[in-house]
Every structure is written in structure tokens, then in C-alpha cells.
User: Fold this.
Amino acid sequence: MQETQNIRIDDYDYPLPDSRIARYPLSQRDSSQLLQYRNGAITTHRFADLPSLLPDDVMLFFNNTRVIQARMHFRKTTGAVIEIFCLEPLLPCDYALSLQSTVSCRWLCLVGNAKKWKEGALQLAFNHEGRQVLLSALRGEQRGDGYEIEFAWDDASITFGEILEVLGELPIPPYLNRATEECDKTTYQTVYSKVEGSVAAPTAGLHFTPAVLDAVRAKGIPMYELTLHVGAGTFKPVKSDIIAQHAMHTEYISVSRKLIEALCDTTRRVIAVGTTSVRTLESLYYMAVTLSRNPQARPEELHVEQWMPYGENPSLSRVDAMHILLDYLDRTASDYLVSATRIIIAPGYRFHVVDGVVTNFHQPRSTLLLLVSALVGGDWRSIYDYALSHDYRFLSYGDSSLLWRVEK
Assistant:
């Protein structure tokens, strides 16, 4: 563990010219470039070629989360604008229940221009289906970089999710250096997004089109959906000198019994679409490790902490781990495993589930770059040097890669 914790983030820096950051997507999602890295060899393709690059013995896993319009702007009587960015529901603590709330709910939020909001509630009046609605926001205690915010409104016929649809703004990444535009409401969602709750898109999935998905199905490759609600911390660069000092954020996941049963297949290799899917699938393994030691573990005890994978070397196979999870679902009479993870995947991590990943090109000094390095046996720099020298577009609206795991 110590070797991984002592990784210096300076070793995961690279020059990213501003001109290489894609500020808008291509008009055709699957016309983006696709870099394939396999056994040390790098080749260039188009994303539409992905189905032909996939062997018959794989299965794909997609994150079906949907980005919510999580950013709202309130104006004080003084004229000061306060931005409230909803990160995570606190009461109710379930995303779906909170978005369905009427009258009130509480969220953990980032607050822009917080120094101008000393006390009292902020208010915002808006029209909904011909009715005037008054929304108020009351700031509570500070939690890290965020604040507890109590939202309340005077019309019980409207849900908080509908309020966000009317008042909210889609929170595109700050590194795009532009305001959210109407087109982002479509282009910053995957074509298979379903479950509302993310404040950032699982961007690897932005390249998929119905035609690509149909071509994957035509090859007989199974596809499964999971849910991880992407938090604002996902794309944050590491600011500490060594990663031991970097605190991972909590992300909430939901996985079906059907998906866990699929992972009992010993003949197919697992391809995760996006780093969020990687973190979810690898977290399942460590939830099973916890249950193998304490079959009566409470749901909150299944949460995967940041450094849990590095303090031990479990001998469970992927199949054994999935059977433990199925037994847990049987015991709790559940069809879904709902939990949370703070897992960090960095060089020194041993993969137990994932064999490859479809992913974009990530920011310098980020935990996502550490994950890529762990997967490719430390060879991340040759991949990124190649991408930079072959006109690849970077970050959320940029090009994509298909990376195969390197055994070390």
C-alpha cells in the first residue's frame, strides 16, 4: 500500500495545449478517433469501428446515469448572484426519492460567491405551467468544500426534479471555458442515459450511437447497464504532492442481479465503458470480500473505502465473489445491490474484474490518469504521447480509446 500511496502526482503530468481540448463534440458521435492499445501496440481507428475491434468473447458494461441540471443561480436584493450547485442528496438521501420530493428536500451543494450570502434564505420566483412558484434556499452547516442547503417551495404539485428542469443549468466541465449551451442538453448525455443523478457525464459513453450499439448486438456481444452517479470530484486534478493526501469522493452505485449473474461467466472478458464503470465493477469485488469475512454485514458496511484494495491480497476469484453477492441479494430479498464507493485505482492496484476499458483522454494530474496507468501496466505516457502527436482531441468532448489490460 505504501508504495502506491507514495506515488508523486508530478509523475502523472503532461503538457496539454489549450488547442487540444475539445470544447464541442463532433456532429456525428461515432466519427471521433479511437486509439486502440493492446500488448504495447497502438493503432488508430474511428469509433464506428469499435464493434469490429471487439473479440467475440467479451461483454460490455455501460453506466446508464443521466446528468441533471444541477446548477442554479439566485439573485440577492443587493444584486449579488449566488450559484448553487447540487452535488448529493441528503434528505431524502436517495437520488430518485430526492428528485421526486415535493415541498422540500436537502442537498449537499457547492456555493459560488458564498461570501456574499451571510444569512437568511435566498428566493427565486418562476412560472410553471401557468402557476407562480416560489423556491427558497437556506444555507446550513459547511461540509468540506460544500454546504447543506435546504430547498423549499410553495407548490406541492411540482417535484424538485421538475424545478431543476425549469431553473437548472447543465453543469458542463469548467475546463471547457464556456457557458452551457442548449445543444449540451443533448450532446452531454449518452444515448442510453436513464437514471438521473450525475453532475458530470460518463464521457466515454458519449461516442456511442444507436448504430454502434446495434452492431455490437449483431456480433452477439452481451451488454449490461449499471448505475454510478458521477460526482463533481471525478475530474478534479490531484492537488497534493503524493496521492496519499488526496481524498476520493463518495459515489453511489446500483447494480442489478442480472449483471452480477453475468459476471459469473468465466469465458467472457469484461470491457467497461468508462472509468466510472471500472470503479463500479472493481468495487463489487471488494464488497464481496467484506461479505466473505462477515456474511451478516449491514449495507453501510459494504461501502468500499479508498485504500481498502491495497492492504491485502484476496484470493477470491471473480466468480466466487459474484456468487457471494448473489447470496447476499437472496438473503436480503433484493434484485439490486445499492451501495457506495470511494475506491482509488492507481499503479499497484490488482484488477479482479475488468479486462479492458473504453475511455476518453483525461486531464493531467488526475486520478483518472492514475487508473489508466494501472490498467496498462504504467505505459500511459506512450499512449498520451501518441495521441498528442496524432491530432487526438482531449477531455470530455474529445476522442476515445480502447485500452486492454496489461498483466504485470
In short: The two ends are 16 Å apart (CA to CA). Residues 2-67+187-404 form a domain with the QueA-like fold (CATH 3.40.1780.10).
